[in-house]
Design goal:
Elements (H helix, E strand, L loop, with lengths): L5 H9 L12 H18 L5 E5 L5 H7 L4 E6 L2 H14 L4 E5 L2 H7 L4 E7 L8 H11 E12 L3 H14 L16 H10 L2 E12 L4 E5 L5 E8 L2
Parallel strand pairs: 1-2, 1-4, 2-3, 4-5
Antiparallel strand pairs: 5-8, 6-7, 6-8
Length: about 230
Amino acid sequence: MGNVDPQELAKFSELAHRWWDTNSEFRPLHAINPLRLEWIDSLAALTDKDVLDVGCGGGILAESMARQARHVTGIDLASKPLGVARLHALETGVANIDYREVAAEAMAAEVPGAFDVVTCMEMLEHVPEPASSVQACAALARPGGWVFFSTLNRNPKSFLFSIVGAEYLLQLLPKGTHEYARFIRPSELARWCRDSGLDVEASRGMEYNPLTQRYWLSADTSVNYLFACRKRA
């Protein structure tokens, strides 16, 4: 199946039926989705754009982008979350979206340069070869197009906040959601982007206050962070 970890697919497939439950394990994704969407749209202007969401899961970001873009394609290798995404789009009447069970690398070979905007959020830390995913995302974007990534930094603070805090103390995520060794330093992701023909235009950190249960974007990329890249012409 290529650049995929079967255990990671099984992990998210088991929870697929709870993907759109805002009080479930996916509550953090629902909470941060408006922040991500606003930031993506502020840079890439989604209106009239063809968008690809790599590692779309149950479609939270993909469906929200479809409400602004011309068309959105969501791809993933976990069939159960894709089934949930298709059903939810049908129930909510979002017609300009489709979902495919295909790897980013395979789709890059099939339709290179086909998309104005490519997003790959919270996925790189779950695949065996994240650099391969970055390269595929770059190949799928048209020259001058936007590519967005979000992932987790690799340092002691990130381990404390995203694993000890989020999974064990606050129980925001199921235990075992993340593996620290797979976290990615911004310098590593920036290098993979440059090697793939992408220029990093902007970055943001994602922060969380457990007392107010509020998320916000900031300049602090020490834990969760996002990259906005442009593909070179």
